[in-house]
Amino acid sequence: PLAAAAERVVVVGDVHGDYDRFVEVLRMAGVVDARTKWKGGRTRLVQMGDVVDRGPDSRKVLDLIPELAKQARRAGGEVHALIGNHEAMNLYGDLRYVHPGEFEAFRTRNSAAVRDAFFEQFAESAGSKPDRAKWDAEHPLGWVEHRFEFGPKGRYGQWIRANPAMLKIGGTLFVHGGIAPKYADFKIEDMNRRVREELEDFEKLNGGVVMDQEGPFWYRGLAEGGEKELDAHVSALLQFHGVKRVILGHTVSPGAVGARFAARVIMADVGLSKAYGGPPACVVIEQDAAFALHRGSKLELPMDAGPGLLRYLRAAAALDPKPSPLEKRIAALEAAQRGEASPAGR
Question: How many helices (H) and strands (E) are present in the chain, helices listed first?
């Protein structure tokens, strides 16, 4: 998935089952109208992955994104959804973070009969009947339907597997977690092919890229690692892919869109969902220049971790309801710049 430069790209971070907040951000960015229909024209919308888990309304978001993609194409725009680690986990059966409401969304009046049939099949294959009450608690109504729809023949399973792990639009590279030095020379199409192969054949997961902590779904070095130590890696990465910047999800940038390495790495995950309580904010790229859109106002991203960052955080905090969650970070930065203490946070 290589895409030409677009006049305007809107980038929304991790949604985690919060349909209402996702729609709020899409409206704020001017890509959907009051009825949640596409009004973005030729805009490209990129959702950074992790639509699912932690919140109850993942299914509504999973239905909305492909619908908006159809509407956008008719208007000359485009919608891209990256695979996040939580989409991958839902495919291969790691359900630790699935919210009860996500199973409930798949429940129908036939769910009890569906679950009974599945239980009998399970007991037969196991050779003994497990404790039914315990088993039911682990398999709530809607669970069987949820697992089917995330499977290879299911609607969401097929859609997720067809999405990219890495994407390039103009001068920007998009990846959910990050790109470690280990994968610095992987071409986009090669990484996407590897991911798809592993998600279609789970035997390939062992020793593959999908579950690798340094892989594109999990690596946090670009978001949390030392800038001095990783500066050469970032420079080489951008040069290899022919881009100005890389945008990440996965690691929450508390209170506002984050920028590191002189805004060559941008953190789009502001913890939008109720699970994190972050602000309505996203990244907007216009004429290949990137900005934060914070509560509807466009802010220039900081090019340094000192005065530039302080100016940016003050501007974002001024848009927040009082007291802004950014105030502690601002106070720590102010103290650091006076030489009173080392900076807290990033």
Answer: 13, 12
Q: Are 269 and 178 in contact (CB under 8 A)?
A: no
Write out the two tokens for 66: 């492909």
Mean pLDDT by 10 residues, the chain (346 residues): 70 98 98 98 98 98 98 98 98 98 98 97 92 96 98 98 98 98 97 98 97 98 98 98 98 98 98 96 96 98 96 98 96 89 48
Neighbouring-strand partners of residue 267 = 248, 258
pLDDT value of position 5? 55
- Residue 27 CA to residue 37 CA, distance in Å, equals 10
**DSSP assigned state of 265:** E
Q: Would you give the distance in Å from CA 325 to the centre of its chain?
A: 22
Q: Which residue has the tokens 């890696």?
A: 233
Q: Is the dihedral of CA 1, 161, 41, 248 positive or negative?
A: negative
| Lookup: tokens for 265 | 């790495």
Residue 21 Cα distances to 27, 33, 37, 54, 281, angstroms: 10, 14, 16, 14, 10
Rounded Cα distance, 331 and 344, in Å:
9
Using the structure block, give the residue that is written with the tokens 């779904």.
217
What tokens appear for 93 in the block? 């059966």
User: How many other C-beta atoms can be found within 10 angstroms of the C-beta atom of residue 268?
Assistant: 26
Q: What is the structure's pLDDT at 7?
A: 87
Token readout for 314 is 């003050």
Using alpha carbons, list the distances in angstroms from residue 35 to 31, 38, 96: 11, 9, 34
Determine the pLDDT at residue 338. Answer: 87
Helix (H, G, I), strand (E, B) or coil at 204: helix
H runs (alpha helix) in the chain? 19-28, 58-74, 85-92, 100-104, 111-126, 132-138, 143-149, 155-162, 188-200, 221-224, 227-241, 307-319, 327-337
Which residue type occupies 83?
I
Q: Which of 225, 234, 209, 266 is nearest to 46 (CA)?
A: 266
C-alpha–C-alpha distance, residues 94 and 55, integer Å: 16
